[in-house]
Amino acid sequence: MANQRKAPEKPVTLNPRLFRERNERYMRDVEFISAAKALETLSSAWESLGALYENPDPTLGRAGNALKFQKAYTKAAERAKRDAQSAMERLTEAHAARVRRAEEAAGLHTMLPDHVAAEIRQVLRGMPEKERSAAIRSAALGGDASVLLAVRNSPSPMLTGAHNVPVDSLARQMALQVDPELDQYETSVSMAMDTVGNLYKKFTTTVDQKMRDAMGEDLAASQSAAVAEAEGKLSAL
């Protein structure tokens, strides 16, 4: 039909198969499986709502078709939101857990006895600043977390003496020594979260602005209210 409505095209990035290919190395991990599932839900919802938009029921009229589409969209959006939120939560939790494992393996969460920490700080305090900084860096990169812990957890910089060591950056390097692929994993997690989040937003915005019939929905609501009022009057007779 020449005047048939055309639904907005689905974004080329809304492609679960492409997502799996790009993240093949992680597709046994539940967080990436969850992200792929969220994209499948969004893709299916987009296609189904597009078909409904392009093929209105001629027997329902504008109000009926608007209400039919609204109900279908509400159901699809709830499922898409649930799957997208689940994917985001799993990705966030899995990322935090992997970082924690790397830090634990590097000794960065070890409980350093107070007397040991005090001894380390005393030794550091007795060094010139240049030697102190070199000692902190050398110990950490050599896999000895105790010196870095004593510095990082010090109640006051005065207990260790001044140094030019970026403690957090050094701790990160220690974690990467244990898990060399952590950077790549974090990049993939970030991209997965951006993909799911952006496409969910694109889905809801596109349907709301370009596919839903607000006037038709208002008409359906008015008709429903009129029917309810008429039925109320009839029941009172």
How much is the radius of gyration in Å? 29 Å
| Cα shape | elongated
Number of helix segments?
Answer: 9
Number of strands: 0
How many discrete domains? 2
Q: Tell me the fraction of residues in β-strands, as a range.
A: under 5%
**In percent, how helical is the residue content?**
over 70%
Structural category: mainly alpha
Mean pLDDT: 91
Largest sheet: none
Distance between the termini: 49 Å
Low-confidence segments, ≥5 residues, pLDDT <50?
A: none
> What is the H-and-E element order?
HHHHHHHHH
Kindly describe this structure.
The protein contains nine helices and no strands. The protein folds into two domains: 16-106 and 181-236, no CATH class; 114-178, no CATH class. The chain is mainly alpha-helical and 237 residues long. Helix content is 74%, strand content 0%. The radius of gyration is 29 Å and the shape is elongated. The chain has helices spanning 16-22, 30-54, 61-105, 114-125, 129-141, 145-152, 167-178, 182-211, 214-236. The mean pLDDT is 91.
Summarize this structure briefly.
With 237 residues, the protein is mostly helical. It is 74% helix and 0% strand.
